[in-house]
Amino acid sequence: MIDLTVIWAFIIAFAVFAYVVMDGFDLGIGILFPTLKVGQGRNRAMNSIAPVWDGNETWLVLGGGGLMAAFPLAYAVILPATYPLIIAMLLGLVFRGVAFEFRWRDPGHRALWDLSFFGGSVIAALAQGMILGALLQGIDVTGRSYDGSWWDWLTPYTLLTGVGVVAGYSLLGACWMIWKLEGDVQEHAYRLAFRAALATLLLMGAVSAYNLLLLPDYRERWLEMPNILFASQVPLLTAIVAGAFFYSLKARRQLMPFLLALALFLLGMAGLGVTIWPYVVPDQITIWDAAAPESSQIFMLVGVALTLPLILAYTAWAYWVFRGKVGHEGYH
Prior knowledge:
This protein is an all-alpha fold. It has helices at residues 4-32, 40-49, 53-56, 58-70, 72-81, 83-105, 110-136, 156-180, 183-214, 216-223, 227-231, 233-250, 256-276, 287-290, 294-321, and strands spanning 141-142, 145-146, 279-281, 285-286.
């Protein structure tokens, strides 16, 4: 018998991963914006994401909407526990969206819009990382409701995960510029990618080590037999991919660093799955506890089966049409 709850868990995980890798690189460019030269450097970087950046956020809607529809109990618990972070994330996305448009239409205040683009990107990335940290560190649940305070999400651990996501998005942004740009901006992006990769890997290691101190279940899944035989493959593959990534930078590859950076994020998500499965709220609510009725899941699955291929098709088409490099004049 097909377990619809597991299918929905993977659909939402796919939507979250698609959002992270697609919106991650344009948030990363915003984070790195102050390091780019005013003028052609910044203009070319922004033009490289102009055709796709707003469509990338489709996946955020699918992930959040899917969570509400397929796992309403989890949605009702996670949102109250992270309201300040969600508000900050949405405001950050609004600021960067407005700045993206107005820096072209209001050149007299371009420095202000550039600052807003940078600030909105950092706030959105930091908030997303801290939401992940707030979930992993545990949420107080009594019955079927959140039982914590307004500030439970603010801990050293959530700050660590937040900075980790900022570093990871910076890595994606730098690798995107390596792939899409040429000349001095591309050379600068190679240097940024090296530094961002070091920071990302160090922070991934620090978060992974911290996880072992959070909950006994985490230690059991990673360190006890026979779990360790399977779980250990994630850090091993991460080390291999990291080595290949640094080699690709040294060899001045252009597309390969971006693909390997995506592989690092995929392995990070695999590690997250090892850590929390089958819980959607760690140590409190499993995916089956939080699931909507089977009839609702079937109804929504029909809708996803119709719309998801369309989303994938128009996303692939947009990336294909704008597949070339952005030249020195700022156009594909």
